[in-house]
Write a structure and sequence with these properties.
Largest sheet: 5 strands, mixed
GO molecular function, one term: kinase activity
GO cellular component, one term: cytoplasm
CATH topology: Mannitol-specific EII, Chain A
Strand content: 15-25%
Keywords: Cytoplasm, Kinase, Phosphoprotein, Phosphotransferase system, Transferase, Transport
Helix content: 40-55%
CATH architecture: 3-Layer(aba) Sandwich
Distance between the termini: 10 Å
Number of strands: 5
Radius of gyration: 14 Å
InterPro entries: Ascorbate-PTS_EIIA_comp, PTrfase/Anion_transptr, PTS_EIIA_type-2_dom
Number of domains: 1
Strand order of the largest sheet: 1-4-5-3-2
Protein name: Ascorbate-specific PTS system EIIA component
Shape: globular
Length: 149
């Protein structure tokens, strides 16, 4: 499913951000451009993080940025953004964040197979190290898609 959802254009390498809020806004740019989300979706992601803390931080320096479908998700969307330098999101155990995976889903089920594929990748430390250190979107894409074959 990942191969059907993304291209190298959905990957940003070495994004510079002032803080976690700026990182979320910038990492959402591709999904906004594609029309997968509306601007209010980005605002909702930030508001929910402010209210609930860094629940999107999954571990291993990874954040899975998302919010409720009714907050402006138009279609299933996915983008990847590496941060340079890494950014603190307020997670004691897993800061700083090196990778933001931004996704949108229009319901509670359409994204489950995508999340399953991501879980396999995210649990492999060798693959994650390659993703963290990728220097081009094409290199990141190749590592990501080869790992789900």
């Amino acid at each position: 499913m990942l191969k059907e959802l993304i291209t190298s254009k959905d990957i940003t390498i070495g994004l510079r951000s002032a803080d976690w809020e700026d990182a979320i806004r910038k990492s959402s740019k591709r999904l906004l451009e594609k029309g997968a989300i509306e601007p209010r979706y980005v605002d909702s992601m930030i508001d929910v993080l402010k209210e609930n803390g860094p629940y999107i931080v999954l571990g291993n320096h990874i954040a899975l940025a998302h919010t409720r479908p009714e907050s402006g998700a138009n279609e299933l969307g996915l983008s990847f953004t590496t941060l340079n330098p890494p950014i603190a999101f307020g997670s004691q155990n897993f800061d700083p964040i090196k990778l933001i995976i931004t996704f949108s889903a229009t319901d509670s089920e359409s994204h489950l197979s995508m999340i399953s594929e991501l879980a396999l990748i995210l649990s492999d430390e060798d693959i994650m190290e390659e993703l963290f250190t990728a220097t081009t979107p094409e290199e990141f894409y190749e590592t990501l898609t080869e790992s789900v074959e």
